[in-house]
Here is the input.
Amino acid sequence: MLTVIKIPHITQKFSWQEFRDWLHQASASARMRTNILAWLIGLAYLLVGAFFWREWMAQYDLKTQALWMLPVFAAWPVLLGFAALFNRIVGNWPLCPACGKKIHTLLPTLASKRCPHCHALILEDMRELSPGYLLPLTMEESLEKKSGYTLSVNTEFLREVRIILIAPLLMIALFLAFGLNRDMELEPMMTAIVQTIGVAIIGMAVLPSLISIPWMTRVCRSLRIIPKEQFIYCPECGCIPSASIARRTGCCSECGAKLLELANEPDTPDMLDWHAVKRYETGRSRSAIVAAVLYPMFLLGSLLKCWRLLWALGAIYAITIWQDFRLKKLARVPKKCPHSDN
Ligand SMILES: [Zn+2]
Ligand SMILES: [Zn+2]
Here is the structure.
């Protein structure tokens, strides 16, 4: 049942620094473009809510007004989604020398040294092993009661968590600022929601990146979410590498430094199914898109108190999460090497 996938060989490789700098530059300008667009969208919402919304809505009954909220909820994720797609197509991203496709992500390319599309080895990295890093346990190992730590926190995760930290605080602040509450009349409430979304978009484009990652790491350590004793940091860059990437590649997911002595991976896909890893990664971005599409419908459902719609949306989301879980299982490192007994 094993499908043989051909992995191309190339002689002309990038140096890892060259690749990292190129990618950093490309993603910095992509981020800038997205931020500018987010500010413009936010400003447009704010102006429409403050000056035009009431006038436009005066001609409709309440039900039609509530329906008009749907494009209000949906417009900004759709626009930002298009911007993300546009950024992937136009940006000056590094090109894979083997297949010519654009490479948009540092993780896991810098660690695997492989193109995320065709899996050819494209990065040259002559760095020696940096000793000291200890791989955290997998879920299975910790269930077998081996000593050590299971760790799900890493630097990339902390970066994403900043959004979850900021969003509710910002929303509460905005609800207070715009006086949104249960007893409000529906019409002024909808006007206030349009403006709230505007400020929220501007805030979310700026605020999360202001929280420093070293500070979050320190807080996690003092809360004992990150173990103090075990050395789970990369000795080269000080970040906490993704354990699953380190386990697969032996390298730091943030800087690509060699952390573990692994056997040289043969260029055959039966040892580690990189395509399954990629399917898992695409699956994750797909769930993010599904969440972005479901979210406006969810808000509308709760605004109209339509519980059946909310249940249906919840079920769709649960299926997406289950799918992610299944793909994650397929992308796991095999327990046994197919070439030997180890
Ligand atoms: Zn390629
Ligand atoms: Zn590192």
Remarks:
- Residues 5 and 23 are 27 Å apart (CA to CA).
- Residues 272-280+288-331 form one domain.
- The chain is about 55% helix and 0% strand.
- The radius of gyration is 24 Å.
